[in-house]
Each structure stands twice: as C-alpha cells, then as structure tokens.
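User: I've been trying to design a sequence by hand for this structure and keep getting stuck. Would you show me what you'd pick, starting by listing the structure so we're on the same page?

Assistant: Good idea, let's start from the same input. This is the structure you sent:
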C-alpha cells in the first residue's frame, strides 16, 4: 500500500481516537448531545414509517376495489328534489352501459347489483341482514371464497331459481347445529334453497367520501333476476308516524374494463352517458384508479411533511452540537495554544474539532436508527395495551388508524444517517474554524 496513504490513515486514526478521548472527559454533556441527534433520527424513521403504514393501508383498501373497475352507485337525492318516486341507477342504464362496453376496442363487462335490508328466517330463528341480488361475477369483485357448496351460477340466474348463498356468519346464526347446504331460508314470503356458504369476509373500510364501508357478515346472495321477479323494485318502510316508499332498480353497477389504460377514458364516457338521464344527480361514479393516483400524490405530500417535521428535531440536535463544541473551544483554549506552539497547523485543529462533532452525530445517528427499527413492535404493543386499558375509546377510533401497522421505509435509514452526518459537519464547522483562528500567544495566556 502507498506509504503516504498509510500515513494519512494513521493520522486520521489518531485524530478520531483523540476526539473520542476528549468527548469521554465529559460523558454527561456528550451523552445529552448524542441524545438530541438520537431523538431526531428516530423521529425521521418513526414518522415516515407511520406515514407509510397509513398510506399503504389506504392504498390497499382502494386497490381492493379493483384497478380496472368503475363503480356506479345509486345515491338518494335530496328531500327537496325527491318526490318519493324511483331514483338511482336503472336497468336501462345497465343495458346502455353494457352495450357501450361491448362496443369498445377492448370489450369490458357490466355487473349489476341490487341490495336491500331483509329479515332471514329458519324456523324460529331470525336475523336482520342484507339481501344481495347479483350475478356469478359478484364473487370475484367482492373477493368471496366458498367454504361449502358453490356460489350462484349462470343457470341459477337464467332460470330465476330460488337459490341462495350465505355468508359465514348468517350460516352460523341460522344453522348452528347442522349443515346449511340444501336447507331452506325464508326471505319475505319466499323460500330459498341454500347452495353454498361463503368464507368469512372482513368488512371493507369506507374510502373517503367516495364509497361507504361494506359489512359482508350478514349477507345472503340470490340471483338478481330472481330478486327482480320475486321482490320487485319497491321498498316500503313503515315506522311510527312515518310511511316511506322507494323505487330502486339497481344499487350498483360495477364495470370491468379489460385494458387498464382505458379505465380513465371509459370513466369519462360513463359519466357522459349517465349524466343526461339523471339530472337530479342520483348516482355516484367511483374510479379506484383515480383514487389510487390521488392517494399516491397525498402519500408523497404527507411523507414530505412528516419528514420536514422530523428534520426539525435533527436541526435542534445540531444546534446542541454547536453549543457543546463552542463551549469545548472555550474550555480548551490553552490546549489549542499549546498544540499550535508545538507545530500543529490550523487544518489540524479544524480536523480535530470537526471530527468530534461528526463522532457525536454518527453515534447519535446509529443509536437513532436502532431505535427507529423498534417502531413496528412498539406501536403494536402500545396498541394492544391501549385496547386493554381503554377498549371503548379504542373502538371509537377509525379502523384505518386503529389497525395501521408502521412500515419502515428502507430509504429513511440511510437518509436519516446521512442527514445526521451533514448536521454534525454543518454545525461543527463554525466551532472548528473558531478554534483554529485563535491566536497561539493569546491562547497560551488563557487561564
């Protein structure tokens, strides 16, 4: 190896060793300075991890709706505009959209859905839940697994059979002692034969104001053609002092576009097609791809904001380094004078004090990274304890916040370490230069 390089390495080794020795002469002061950097680095890693966890959970909820889907839902118009007649998405809209999708260069499909609240009965057992009229494709878009039997088939719909599939919770409540397959469930005045039981399905969280949360635990699925024929479109609700009649043909139409690049243009086409027939605005179009793009933009802004907030802690830690180094220069003025008198150059003095500030920041940065890696287990542990101590308050917290799990952002670790080193250098330069500029004679006279 080059002798000059070896000489430089040996010199830097001596400088680092001398810096560490000087810092250890005041362990409490050095420790508090390191603590400032540690808190700053840990804040960067933690805040970015929490932000990433929240953003990822939100994106997963949106992605669960399907990146190639366009969701058209019925919305009840305001009381001033609604006179009690029919409203929302109609079968005519469904047929028009089906033909529109079929005419695209890459054809898509429209999936009709009708939902209504009903009471399900088996003997003396009764359960309030949601009756869903759908086609076999609903199983895929709702991500329903089948535990027993099968889901609805095309033949069930074409023949308008009184067949149904039950959610796991409904099957357990109505048939607690036996197999539900082949048994009959009463809905209104009709009986439906159970052909399948679905796997348990967690409720989906609402996506902003675009789509409400859905609970699949009390669902019964029947062919939509059977629902149209047996139950019709009229919904009558009678309450003390109130009578309400609604006419709803479809609750939702989910449009699946074959080409992902055609989703946004198709969504514009859907809006234009529907708008002319619905002047009251009794519908809403939700495009998960648009929501994903918005979520990505929001995620970047959110993480930038959290990063800036955490960076403030590092700046405060850097100010602590500068304060300690300026105090050190004052205390070691005579030592600086002796070194200069023995032949040390200004560059040697700068190197020594700059190395001390960098050592403080690097040690604090490494400890901060270690602390940052404990973000996920500590957050989960804290959440578990809070659910034990204050269960009611935790239950009131939104699912997105309560169930979020921090995700360590890989680049946050080298970023925070790099920032801590830059802070050490930036806030150590001035004290180092001030030490190097001391007049040797005046420094030797200093008590």
């Amino acid at each position: 190896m080059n002798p000059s390089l070896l000489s430089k390495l040996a010199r830097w080794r001596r400088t680092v060793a001398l810096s560490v020795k000087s810092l250890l002469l005041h362990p409490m002061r050095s420790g508090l300075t390191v603590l400032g950097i540690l808190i700053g680095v840990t804040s960067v890693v933690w805040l970015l991890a929490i932000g990433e966890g929240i953003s990822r959970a939100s994106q997963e909820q949106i992605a669960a709706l399907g990146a190639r889907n366009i969701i058209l839902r019925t919305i009840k118009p305001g009381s001033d505009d609604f006179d009690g007649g029919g409203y929302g998405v109609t079968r005519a809209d469904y047929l028009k959209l089906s033909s529109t999708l079929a005419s695209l260069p890459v054809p898509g499909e429209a999936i009709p859905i009708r939902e209504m609240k009903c009471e399900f009965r088996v003997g003396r057992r009764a359960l309030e839940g949601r009756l869903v009229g759908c086609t076999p494709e609903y199983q895929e878009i709702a991500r329903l697994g089948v535990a027993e039997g099968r889901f609805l088939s095309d033949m069930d719909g074409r023949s308008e059979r009184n067949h149904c599939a039950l959610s796991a919770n409904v099957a357990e409540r109505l048939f607690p002692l036996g197999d539900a397959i082949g048994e009959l469930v009463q809905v209104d005045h009709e009986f439906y034969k159970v052909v399948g039981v679905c796997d348990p399905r967690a409720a989906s969280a609402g996506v902003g104001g675009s789509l409400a949360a859905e609970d699949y635990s009390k669902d019964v699925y029947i062919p939509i053609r059977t629902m149209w024929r047996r139950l019709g479109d009229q919904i009558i609700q009678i309450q003390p002092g109130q009578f309400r009649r609604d006419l709803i043909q479809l609750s939702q139409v989910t449009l699946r576009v074959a080409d992902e690049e055609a989703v946004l243009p198709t969504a514009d086409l859907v809006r234009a097609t529907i708008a002319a027939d619905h002047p009251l605005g009794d519908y809403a179009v939700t495009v998960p791809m648009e929501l994903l793009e918005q979520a990505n933009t929001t995620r970047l802004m959110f993480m930038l904001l959290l990063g800036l907030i955490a960076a403030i802690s590092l700046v405060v830690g850097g100010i602590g380094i500068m304060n300690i180094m300026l105090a050190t220069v004052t205390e070691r003025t005579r030592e600086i004078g002796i070194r200069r008198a023995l032949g040390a150059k200004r560059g040697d003095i700068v190197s020594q004090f700059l190395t001390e500030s960098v050592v403080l920041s690097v040690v604090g940065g490494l400890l901060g990274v270690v602390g940052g890696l404990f973000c996920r287990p500590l957050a989960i542990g804290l959440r578990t304890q809070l659910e034990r101590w204050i269960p009611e308050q935790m239950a009131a917290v939104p699912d997105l916040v309560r169930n979020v799990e921090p995700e360590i952002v890989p680049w946050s670790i080298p970023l925070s370490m790099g920032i801590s080193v830059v802070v050490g250098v930036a806030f150590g330069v001035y004290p180092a230069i001030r030490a190097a500029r001391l007049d040797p004679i005046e420094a030797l006279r200093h008590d």
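That's my pick for every position. To get oriented when you compare it with your attempt: The longest strand covers residues 109-122. The mean pLDDT is 83.
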